[in-house]
Amino acid sequence: REKDFVEQNKEKWKRFEDIASKSSNSNPDELDDLYTKITNDLSFARTYYYRRSIRVYLNNLAQSIYSELYKYRKGRKNAFVSFWTEQLPQSLYLARKELNISLIFFVFAMVLGILSSIHENDFAQLILGDRYVEMTEENISKGQPMAVYDSGNNVDMFFAITWNNIKVAFLTYVWGAFFAIGSLLILLYNGIMVGTFQYFFIERELFQESFLTIWMHGAFEISAIIIAGGAGLTLGRGLLFPGNLPRLQSFQISARRSVQIMLGLIPVFIAAGFIEGFFTRFTEAPDTVRGAFILICFFTVAFYFWYYPWSKFSKHPPKINLNHLIDQGSEIVDLQKLRSSKEVFGGTFKVYRSVLGRLLIISISIALLYSIVFYLLNAETLTEKAYLSNSFFPIGLFLEQFTGYSIFPNMFFPNVLAMSLIIWFSLNAIKNKFLEATNRLDWILLIKTTVVVGIYELAVWSGSGFLIFLAVLMIPILLFWLLTSYVENRSLINSLQRAIDLIRGAKRNIYASYLGLAFVSVLLIGVVNMPISTLYLEGLLWNIDAEADTQLKIALMLVLFVHKIGIFLVVPLFAINQLLEVYSAKEITDAETLRELVQKIGVTESAYGMEKE
Predict the structure, then answer these.
(1) Chain segment 248-259, per-residue pLDDT in tens
(2) Crossing angle of helices 475-488/443-462, nearest 10°?
């Protein structure tokens, strides 16, 4: 009976009312449990007491606690702390075989480098280069074998070394996309180089001094390369061994896991660069101090990246809900639903995949027009300002030369227009696919997009390293601002404060998925550029009968064209990502979807003067 139902549950409902009115303290677990019970009671009341006021009371009670519950669920554990204590260790544990293979393979390559140096006198010159060997021999003759670490400005060395470590580790990782073989090749080369380098000093009876100097920073630097190799093998394993999953879905899972591992290496990169830039140069420090420091560095890496994940999950292996991780793509995407940061990351690729066909055509078209404009504006001075490189990073061509306005200042407006067009076309494609099937183009949106992109490009135009860094950091905020204006049909001026209110009110960390997306985007650009830069370009030029200057122009424009296709294919990812962030923030703040669901309950029947839901 209804009376018994009320008597059995009224204390629970009273407690819930106290929490909703904030007159009583609660913990997240209690609130979660109460919310589950209230919704169960509401379902019971809708079935047996649908004509009674108890149903309306419970419905209002459940609605009133919605935002309070989400706040607790979101704040249950700080996302930053959770990443380092839960998510990353779990990914490391699941990738433990790949990490062990990477470590063993690197050690094998080091031994191979040492044995090759023993049996081949000129092996060091072949691997390290004649110039470096000659310089080191000269320093040894002066009694300063480690003099190379004493030169240069500390701060400049720190940034240069950190950037170089990131490039090498990223190269090791990204080549894992080629069925893991690429990562093994990079590990092989670096391992042989380290073994050759170390034996070079052993042969000259300088093992102790070289070991205590080089491995002060090498403990972190080499460890980062090995772990990046493990991440690359994890990436490739998803393609090679999909198991019972479709190959694409297996790759998605391995990509998420490997990206987390690469994000976890950021402090290691910084630490290695800082040590090499500021501490390695102190070669006069006591050997015991330097030796202890090296052991501490190795212990830190071994503990966190190997032992800690094993000790945390070996007895209770993590259970992965594949249905949650894998985006089957069968259901219709609801852009306006509330999503967590992890769901935003996954939803970004689902929306992207659904409009990929259009984006591919648009990207190729804009890249072609951009390349033509670039050539027309810079044909006379192209070979004087631009040049090819054999360096893999950035993908066979120093592409920053084309985005540096100090070299090509006339490309400011083409860059702004091209980037604005790809974002604009992406949003129109999404609108036609998910929101409103119409062929009308929103020209006001194009103007808004151009303004926001122009702000970013002005920072690049300034040439200031700080402003460029700030502009890159502001990309998700600028997109969030633009998409708030787009979603709510506001002017950019009016939507600025609204965007700030949404981010604050929803307490959204819009960088959570942005960082992972940045790693994936660089990977995608590398996959697009790598074949043309390392294989097809050279083969194509062999078959073009033209002067060297003409061949160079063709090579430059071809690589630029392909690179722009890669750029224009990944830019929509960031726009989609922040579009989902805007809708999630709006739902947390305004609960529009929840209100619509409540209103749809309505009145479907009236009997004896009582309303039936």
Answers:
(1) 777 778 888 888
(2) 160
Give the type of residue at 373.
V
The helix (H) or strand (E) run that includes residue 586 is: helix 548-590
Tens-place pLDDT, residues 146-183: 655 555 556 666 666 677 777 777 777 877 766 677 78
**Collapsing DSSP states into helix, strand and coil, what is residue 612?**
strand
* For residue 200, pLDDT beyond 80: yes
Q: Which amino acid is at 601?
A: I
Specify the DSSP class assigned to residue 535: I
pTM > 0.85: no
The C-alpha atoms of residue 9 and residue 1 are separated, in whole angstroms, by 13
* pLDDT surpasses 90 at 529: no
Q: Rounded to an integer, what distance in angstroms lies between the CA atom of residue 416 and that of residue 458?
A: 9
With contact defined as beta carbons under 8 Å apart, do 449 and 405 qualify?
Answer: no
Looking at this protein, which amino acid is placed at residue 115? Answer: L
CA distances from 413 to 111, 409, 530 (A): 54, 9, 28
Cα separation, 187 vs 181, in Å, equals: 10
d(CA 281, CA 146): 8
CB 561 within 8 A of CB 368: yes
| Whole-number Å distance between alpha carbons of 564 and 362 | 12
Q: Is the separation of the CB atoms in 557 and 402 below 8 Å? A: no
Lowest mean pLDDT among 48-57, 125-134, 147-156: 147-156
